């Protein structure tokens, strides 16, 4: 679909509009856009309330973003992801609009 949008000149309306060739190069500056992208990333990389080792989460984020460690930090700071005190495991605690209901 992204290829179709690129050929027709259309821009997707969701968080995908911030991807460059399928990757998140930078987070949007506008707070509402940044929050939207972070919710989308959280839903796409972490199941709800299932702990994931730090290395696995970093690898998942690395497939999507140029700076997976910074993105992981942003997810925690936004309150979308919680981590153990030692940072060994991460899990998502919030339902987003991108979760199937």
TL;DR?
This protein has helices spanning 2-8, 31-45, 54-64, 68-77; strands at 52-53, 81-83, 89-92. With 101 residues, the protein is mainly alpha-helical.
Tell me the fraction of residues in β-strands, as a range: 5-15%
Q: What would you call the quaternary organization?
A: single chain
In this structure, how is the largest beta sheet organized? 3 strands, antiparallel
Topology as a string of helices (H) and strands (E): HHEHHEE
Give the strand tally.
Answer: 3
Poorly predicted tracts of residues: 1-10
The share of residues in helices is 40-55%
Walk me through the structure.
The protein has four helices and three strands, in the order H-H-E-H-H-E-E. The chain is mostly helical and 101 residues long. The longest helix has 15 residues, at 31-45.
């Amino acid at each position: 679909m992204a290829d179709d949008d690129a050929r027709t000149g259309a821009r997707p309306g969701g968080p995908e509009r911030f991807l460059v060739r399928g990757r998140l190069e930078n987070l949007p500056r506008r707070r509402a856009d940044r929050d939207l992208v972070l919710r989308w990333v959280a839903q796409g990389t972490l199941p709800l309330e299932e702990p994931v080792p730090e290395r696995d989460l970093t690898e998942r984020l690395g497939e999507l973003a140029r700076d997976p460690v910074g993105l992981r930090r942003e997810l925690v700071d936004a309150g979308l992801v919680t981590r153990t005190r030692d940072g060994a495991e991460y899990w998502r605690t919030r339902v987003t609009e991108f979760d199937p209901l």
